[in-house]
Structure to design on (678 residues):
DNA sequence: CAATATATTGGGAACGTTCCCATAATGGTT
DNA sequence: AACCATTATGGGAACGTTCCCAATATATTG
């Protein structure tokens, strides 16, 4: 049961550990016969290097943390996929922690990762300002931090990857207007994160431009999941608010609202059109399919991982911001049957 | 930037590393004054134990692997939540790998985890027989393996946690029949996994009992995701098969099929009733809400983690099988509006 | 043939910790 | 006063590697 070590090989072959090490590392200062003998014995005894020992030696853990508000919708999963694409080939382990949209848990998660000695952290924050000081401390203590999607205030010098929320939200509102909608509700994301503000800003700007803005239609939801969308829709109906379309911060919000409306016998999109930000397979796996801003989530993860690797290699390297392009895709939830 | 070590503390306080270690570990053989001085200095210099060194010392990595067919639906996420609940408080890290329903990738993932030196592995397999020999090898080399949901053949002596698939599938078919359905389609899971066989067995048994079984209605899908469900539904329609209800292996299959049917203008449940296995929030976040076998997924993760910890503590401990109870919940997709 | 270059190997420190063993100092007992 | 038990501390090996620095053996050069 005990693992074979270099020492075992050394004893088995009557060689020193140095020589074994050289053979295994393809060092040039070794006789090819010896090398072959060693490799053969390693094979035979099932030698596998002890990564823990190497980690100690090199002062790295070859692991990184991935902190997200939630892991139960495909959003984070798709980003994670991208992170894996980059990091697994490099031998990194990824440790995932969920904050449940709670800054206190986020803080605990970060500290836990620090205690795990991770080489770096990729994070989608859940509250822009609350943990600002922790981010700074962690970076100061030497663990690089890379943000994606929801990014912190500009005062923090970190690498980050995001999409142009303001523009894409604006374009989506233009689309709804071009579909003849005039009473557009916005189910807003948490006002403590920057891209919620950005998207709401785009919404407000375009509606104001068209002289259609009505502050009553800007809804602060209580979360970003299905349930929050459902509740928001219910309140709109219960309060007898007149509206003909919804633009939601996330696909989950949109779907929650859409399901509630349909349960009330309201036709989508005939009576209410629905659009949102997405990038997950949710947008095409609901009825009707959802018009959405398709964010390149996997690519987002790949970019974040690449930026993190740069920082891990050289902690003093300049921070970068990558802005990815997102595509608007028009589907049945705004266009109706003709699609 | 360099981390404070015990040696630094020793030098700072003119004490030996042994004494520092004792102070930090609350050893009884130490003067309380000394202990306080050490703790104070540790605080001041920001000492944090180096887990890598400890791992090397104790021959453990305090990390476990979590291998699942996919991570983009909430199924695995919910199980993972349970795993986290048990393992994080114990200081374990969880490393997640996705097999994409591909036994070859599953194999690679397992070997990768072994090279990471994980203390144990929790796995939901994607092909019952293909990797059998690898499971055996890994266990033989000393890494405990715990299975959940999809479990391997009985010849393998491992701990596992599952639900009673046959019974619950049977009950669900009884429900559909009691709703007046007689032409019940089964969207079957991959025939290479045992619980797909079990659920199909329950389906077949009850229908045969009621003299309603029609082999034409047993559909082998090409996967378990939304898309596979959609394709299966399309084929049924295209082939002009007559049916009045669907019982699906997973909620994703059911939802994919349901969406396609609705896009074709078919009413659910009036024309086609739909039911499936679930346990995720999908069942209540679609329109109409889905009648389903609600598997206790978080609990499944907790049980699997608990079993794994037992094996990690004592690799010779007896393997256990935990069968969890799943509840049938009847919703609009079979009952209709009256709910 | 001596001198030097080259090839191959071994010894042992280092990474940060724990823990066994020795040592020193103190206090109490006869 | 001599002894032993107790308390507090230090020294150093060990976990599995790598890699620097010898040490040896062989080959090459003038």
């Amino acid at each position: 049961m005990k693992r074979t070590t270099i020492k075992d090989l050394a004893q088995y072959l009557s060689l020193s550990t140095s020589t074994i090490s050289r053979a295994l590392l393809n060092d040039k200062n070794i006789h090819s016969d010896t090398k072959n003998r060693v490799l053969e014995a390693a094979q035979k005894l099932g030698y596998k290097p002890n990564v823990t020992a190497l980690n100690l030696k090199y002062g790295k853990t070859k692991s990184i943390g991935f902190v997200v508000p939630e892991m139960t919708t495909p959003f984070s999963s798709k980003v994670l996929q991208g992170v894996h694409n980059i990091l697994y080939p490099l031998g990194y382990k990824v440790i995932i922690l969920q904050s449940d949209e709670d800054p206190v848990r986020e803080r605990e998660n970060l500290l836990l990762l620090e205690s795990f000695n991770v080489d770096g952290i990729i994070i989608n924050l859940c509250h822009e300002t609350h943990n600002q000081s922790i981010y700074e401390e962690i970076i100061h203590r030497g663990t690089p931090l890379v943000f994606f999607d929801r990014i912190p205030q500009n005062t923090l010098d970190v690498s980050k990857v995001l999409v142009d929320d303001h523009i894409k939200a604006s374009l989506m509102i233009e689309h709804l207007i071009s579909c003849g909608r005039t009473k557009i509700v916005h189910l807003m994301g948490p006002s403590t994160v920057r891209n919620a503000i950005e998207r709401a800003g785009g919404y407000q700007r375009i509606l104001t431009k068209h002289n259609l803005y009505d502050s009553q239609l800007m809804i602060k939801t209580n979360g970003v999941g299905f349930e929050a969308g459902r509740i928001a829709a219910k309140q709109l109906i219960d309060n007898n608010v007149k509206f003909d379309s919804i633009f939601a911060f996330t696909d989950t919000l949109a779907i929650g609202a859409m399901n509630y409306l349909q349960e009330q016998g309201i036709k989508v999109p005939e009576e209410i059109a629905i659009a949102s930000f997405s990038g997950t397979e949710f947008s095409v796996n609901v009825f009707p399919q959802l018009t959405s801003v398709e964010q390149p989530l996997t690519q987002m993860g790949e970019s974040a991982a690449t930026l993190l690797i740069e920082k891990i290699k050289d902690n003093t390297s300049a921070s970068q911001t990558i802005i990815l392009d997102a595509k608007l895709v028009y589907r049945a939830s705004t266009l109706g049957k003709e699609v």
